[in-house]
C-alpha cells in the first residue's frame, strides 16, 4: 500500500473514532513516514520543518478570534442577533418548518451566507475571515429556527469553494490562471498541449454543477428536518435581556474598526495585521473596559486555538508526506492500474487527487504535484485540452471539502462551534465530504468524457 493512502486511512479512521484531529494527524504522519521507509528521526525532522507553514494561518485565526470576541463585548453582535430575532417574531414562536415565516428566514439566511462567502473569495478576498465574526451572532437565530447546523456548514463550504473553481476573480485568479492553467501548460508544453486562461472556467463549469447538486441535496433532503440545540438560560426561560443601547458614536467606531481591519488586510495581505488593528481600535475607543482587553484577547485565542493547532499539525503532516516521496509514487503508480481504458483512467486520476488533497488540505497545493504526470497521461488517452483541465482541476479540488485540515471545513466549524454544539468531524467534515466529493467525482468524470 502506498504510504499516502495508508496515512490518510489512519487519519480518517482515528478522526471517526473521536480521536483528536491534531493527534490523528501526528500519528498518521508517523505511520505514513515509517511505511515509506523513513526513520523516526527523519519523520520528526520533516514534520518539524513543515510546521512553519501553518504558523501564519494559526496566528491569523487567533487574532481574528480576538477581534470577534472584542466585537461581541461591544454589544454589536448581540444587537444584530436581537434585531434578527425581532424581525422573525417573538422568541420561541418560530420553529423552522413549523412556520412559513421561519422557513422564509431560513432560505434568506442561506442565500445571505452564500453571497457573503462568494464575495469573500472574489471582490472582497478575505477568505474565511468573515466566518468567526458573522456566524456566532446568528447562532441564536439558528437555534430559534431549529436549523440543522450541518446544512449551514454545507452552505458555507459551498460558498467559499464554488467561486475559486469557476470565477477568475480574487482567489479564483490564483486557482484557475496562476496554478491550473500554468501547471497544465508547463506539463504539456513538450507534448503539444497548450491551454488558455479563458478555457479553465469553461472546463470547471460541469464539475461545479456537481457542487450545486450536492448543496441542493444537503439543504432540501439530508438536513431539512429541525434539529434542537441548547439555548442560553435566559432564552429557555423566555426572559428578555436588557442590554444598553449603542450610541451613534459607538456604532461609528465599530464600523471604523471593521472597515479598518478589512482595508489593512486587503492592502497588506495579512489577516494578522487586520485582526490586530480591529482589536486595537475597539479597545482604544472605550467600547469595552481597558482592563479587560487581556482577558478578551485570551478568550479570542482560546476560541480559535483548536483550529490553529489543526492547521499547524496539517502542515507538519504535509511536510512528512512530501519528504517521503510517496506522492509522486502514488500519482505515477496510478497509471499501472489503468491499462488502456480512458474511462477508468479518468476515475483513477480523480480518486488519487482526492487522497492527496485530503492529506495536504489544500487544492491549491495539490495541482502542481499531480499535473506533471496527469497531463501526459491524459494526452496519451486522447483527452482534449478542456477535458484535461477538468480532470486536473477537479482532482485538485476533490478533498478540499471534506478534509479535516482544510479551510473549507475548519472555517465553518470556527463559527458554528462558538457555543460548543458543533462537532468538527461529524457536523462539518462528514457532511461536506458526502455532499461534495461524491458529486465532484461523478461530474468530473462526465466532464472528462464529454468535453
UniProtKB/TrEMBL annotation:
The chain crosses the membrane at residues 6-38, 50-71, 107-139, 151-176, 203-223, 251-281, 301-321, 342-361, 367-392. It comes from the Bacteria. Its main location: membrane. Pfam families: Na_H_antiport_2 (PF13726), Na_H_antiporter (PF03553). Keywords: Cell membrane, Membrane, Transmembrane, Transmembrane helix. Residues 155-445 form the Na+/H+ antiporter NhaC-like C-terminal domain. It is a multi-pass membrane protein. It is found in: Cell membrane. InterPro entries: AA_Transporter-Related, Na/H_Antiport_NhaC-like_C, Na_H_antiport_N. Residues 2-87 form the Putative Na+/H+ antiporter N-terminal domain. The keyword Transmembrane applies. One of its GO terms (cellular component) is plasma membrane. This is SLC13 family permease.
Amino acid at each position: 500500500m502506498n504510504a499516502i493512502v495508508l496515512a490518510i486511512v489512519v487519519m480518517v479512521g482515528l478522526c471517526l473514532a473521536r480521536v483528536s484531529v491534531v493527534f490523528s494527524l501526528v500519528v498518521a504522519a508517523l505511520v505514513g513516514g515509517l511505511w515509506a521507509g523513513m526513520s523516526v528521526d527523519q519523520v520528526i525532522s520533516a514534520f518539524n520543518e513543515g510546521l512553519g507553514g501553518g504558523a501564519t494561518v494559526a496566528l491569523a485565526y487567533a487574532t481574528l478570534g480576538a477581534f470577534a470576541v472584542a466585537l461581541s463585548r461591544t454589544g454589536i453582535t448581540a444587537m444584530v442577533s436581537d434585531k434578527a430575532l425581532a424581525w422573525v417574531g417573538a422568541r420561541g414562536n418560530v420553529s423552522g418548518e413549523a412556520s412559513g415565516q421561519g422557513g422564509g428566514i431560513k432560505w434568506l439566511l442561506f442565500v445571505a451566507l452564500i453571497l457573503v462567502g462568494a464575495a469573500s473569495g472574489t471582490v472582497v478576498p478575505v477568505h474565511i475571515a468573515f466566518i468567526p465574526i458573522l456566524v456566532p451572532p446568528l447562532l441564536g437565530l439558528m437555534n430559534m429556527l431549529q436549523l440543522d447546523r450541518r446544512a449551514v456548514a454545507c452552505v458555507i463550504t459551498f460558498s467559499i469553494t464554488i467561486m475559486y473553481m469557476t470565477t477568475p476573480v480574487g482567489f479564483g485568479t490564483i486557482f484557475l490562471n496562476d496554478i491550473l492553467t500554468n501547471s497544465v501548460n508547463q506539463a504539456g508544453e513538450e507534448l503539444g498541449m497548450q491551454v488558455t486562461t479563458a478555457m479553465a472556467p469553461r472546463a470547471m463549469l460541469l464539475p461545479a454543477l456537481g457542487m450545486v447538486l450536492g448543496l441542493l441535496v444537503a439543504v432540501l433532503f439530508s438536513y431539512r428536518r429541525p434539529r434542537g440545540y441548547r439555548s442560553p438560560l435566559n432564552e429557555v426561560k423566555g426572559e428578555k435581556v436588557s442590554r444598553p443601547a449603542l450610541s451613534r458614536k459607538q456604532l461609528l467606531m465599530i464600523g471604523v474598526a471593521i472597515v479598518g481591519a478589512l482595508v489593512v488586510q486587503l492592502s497588506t495581505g495579512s489577516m494578522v495585521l487586520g485582526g490586530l488593528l480591529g482589536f486595537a481600535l475597539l479597545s482604544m475607543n472605550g467600547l469595552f473596559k481597558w482592563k479587560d482587553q487581556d482577558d478578551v484577547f485570551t478568550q479570542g485565542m482560546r476560541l480559535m486555538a483548536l483550529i490553529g493547532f489543526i492547521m499547524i499539525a496539517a502542515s507538519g503532516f504535509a511536510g512528512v508526506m512530501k519528504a517521503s516521496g510517496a506522492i509522486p509514487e502514488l500519482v505515477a503508480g496510478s497509471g499501472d492500474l489503468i491499462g488502456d481504458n480512458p474511462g477508468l483512467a479518468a476515475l483513477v486520476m480523480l480518486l488519487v487527487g482526492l487522497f492527496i488533497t485530503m492529506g495536504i488540505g489544500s487544492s491549491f497545493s495539490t495541482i502542481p504535484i499531480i499535473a506533471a504526470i496527469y497531463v501526459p497521461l491524459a494526452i496519451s488517452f486522447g483527452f482534449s485540452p478542456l477535458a484535461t483541465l477538468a480532470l486536473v482541476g477537479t482532482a485538485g479540488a476533490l478533498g478540499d471539502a471534506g478534509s479535516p485540515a482544510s479551510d473549507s471545513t475548519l472555517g465553518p466549524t470556527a463559527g458554528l462551534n462558538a457555543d460548543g454544539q458543533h462537532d468538527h468531524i461529524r457536523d462539518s467534515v462528514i457532511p461536506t465530504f458526502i455532499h461534495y466529493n461524491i458529486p465532484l467525482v461523478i461530474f468530473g468524470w462526465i466532464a472528462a468524457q464529454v468535453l
